[in-house]
Amino acid sequence: MEGGGNEFTGEITLRPLELSDIDDFMVWATDEKVTRFCSWEPYTNKEDAINFINTKVISHPWFRAICLNGQPIGAISVTKNSGNDRCRGELGYVLGSKYWGRGIATKAVKQVANTIFAEWPHLERLEAIVDVENPGSQRVLEKAGFQREGVLRKYMLLKGRTRDLVMFSLLSSDPKS
Amino acid sequence: MAIDLSRISLRPFKLTDVDDFMLWAGDDQVTRFLRWKTFTSKEEALTFINDVCIPHPWRRSICIDDRSIGFVSIFPGSGDDRCRVDMGYGIATKYWGQGITTKAVKIALSQVFKDLPNLVRLQSFVAVENIASQRVLEKAGLLKEGMLRKYTYLKGNLEDLFVYSFLATDSFPVVDP
After folding, report:
1. Residue of chain B minimizing CA distance to A84
2. Considering CB atoms only, which of B77, B150, B152 is closest to A171?
3. Which of B165, B167, B170 to mutate to test the interface with A (most CBs of A within 10 A)?
4. What is the C-alpha separation between B115 and A164, in angstroms, rounded?
5. What's the CA gap between B161 and B127, in Å, rounded?
């Protein structure tokens, strides 16, 4: 299988994730390859997934399904901060593993970058922190025009282990790629 | 004449520090890059020492001959951030440029990692214009990891910050003198 940069065979769009997407959600959310660098463990039952969509997704400040030809194959979200930190939002994303290496996540990130600053006028900085051992995700951000700012050593715990993380950012004033 | 650095110590705050506290916490130059607003009355200061400084998880007065000339604060993280703490400090302008803050930070490093045995990472954020504070951290042995662009508002100004860190596995600086 070839590396990243291949053309995907279809249209990538972002839209809200709904309860009716539950079966598509389960495809990526139960895959331990996908959740390896996520703070959460793979889902093991539909009930937990339904609960997640009802409690966390519906009320989330910005959560979208990444769709290929209208079908959800992953998710992308931006967290909101308040007060002195309102200038900053954190980007996160997951993609079904069979869709990796085709530029899809990069496309989704670029779509977020092109809309979020207009949607959130207080936002100056979109940031993402990526595990040093996740070069695929680092490349997504680089291709999407994010700047690599540095490695934060033993910055946080991922599933009980301290991790070195790379900090990336895109400013509202940065050139769009 | 250079101050004998063996006169510098760290200890918890006391209500009787209030007059000395006002000398530095009442100075705009000292609070310029802090989240603290400059104190304007002894009453305000007493309340703050009583309600904030004394019950604080880890805040110490920097003292010369046991008289308060500044502070060092450590803020612990929680949840997946519990492996790290944030450090802040400030000192009266009269004592700037003499290696005193560097000494205080070195003492703080050795004390904090002893007091918090599970601590992995201590970090400190410094505004890019605050060159003197960057030098303190470098001399105390912290590593500059990068610059976080437009990271936060500090007293209404959107700031670029350098992030510095010290790990439990790094070499502890020699404290004397």
Report:
1. B153
2. B150
3. B165
4. 24
5. 4
Evaluate the omega torsion of the peptide bond into residue B177 and state whether it is cis, within 30 degrees of 0.
yes
Yes or no, beta carbons of B81 and A158 under 8 Å apart:
no
**Contact with chain B for residue A156, Cβ under 8 A:** yes
Instruction: Compute how many other C-beta atoms are within 10 angstroms of the C-beta atom of residue B123.
Output: 22
Encode B103-167 in three state secondary structure: HHHHHHHHHHHHHCCCCCEEEEEEECCCHHHHHHHHHCCCEEEEEEEEEEEECCEEEEEEEEEEE
Q: How far apart are the CA of A68 and the nearest CA of chain B, in angstroms?
A: 33
Q: CA-to-CA distance for A38 and A30, rounded, in angstroms?
A: 12
- Name residue B51's amino acid: D
Type of residue found at A24: D
What is the residue-averaged pLDDT of chain A? 94
Note the pLDDT of residue A167. 98
- Output the six-digit token pair for A85: 């930190």
User: Do the Cβ atoms of A151 and B150 come within 8 Å?
Assistant: no
What are A116-156's pLDDT values in tens digits?
999 999 999 999 999 999 999 999 999 999 999 999 999 99
CA distance A12 to A140: 15
A90 touches chain B (CB under 8 A): no
- A39 contacts B143? CB cut-off 8 A: no
Residue in this structure with the two tokens 């003492």, named with its chain if needed: B107
- If you count them, how many residues does chain A have? 177
Quick one: DSSP state of residue B35? S
SS3 state at B44: helix
Residue B160 has pLDDT above 70, yes or no: yes
Long-range CB contacts for residues A41-49, cutoff 8 Å, separation at least 24? A41/A159, A46/A22, A49/A22, A49/A25
CA distance A19 to A23: 9
Tell me the one-letter amino acid at A10: G
ipTM (interface pTM): 0.93
- Cβ neighbours of B83 in A, within 8 Å: 154-157, 162
